[in-house]
Amino acid sequence: MYRRWGFVRLLKLLFIRFVRLKGTPHEVSRGIALGIAIGLTPTFGFQMLLGALAAWILRESKVAAILGVWITNPVTAPFIYALEYETGRTMLQMEHARLPAEFTFEALSRLGWDVLVPLCLGSLVWAMIGWILAYYFCLQLAPLARRIHISRWPRPKRKT
Q: Where are the bilayer-spanning segments (predicted)?
């Protein structure tokens, strides 16, 4: 029955990939932390590419970085970006961005900057926090996860 639940299957597959990653716990933790830090930036749509590129440049685990990027997905992205915007807005002591009365190019570009600047500042704060927390959490989890045996999905019996 649970095999039809796409989300449960996705979580299990991501966990299997995490368990089977090559490298020391330190290397895997650095890759995951890098991916999570990139996943917490407002680069939705390019995060996997940026994660792989940054991992290649910094010589980290590319697979671990790509797995970490998935902290931001279509389910979590609205909550993460709202939190980052509010954090940046509070730090800059700005008012909430409001829709302009008229939709001219200048009004929309001003609205874009009123949203983008706090979002980028908040994302930097949360990316640093996420990097640190993910690194230490994965450093503790990696040795434990390697000892776990994950069973295969039950397969229907073939009719011969």
A: 31-56, 63-83, 115-138
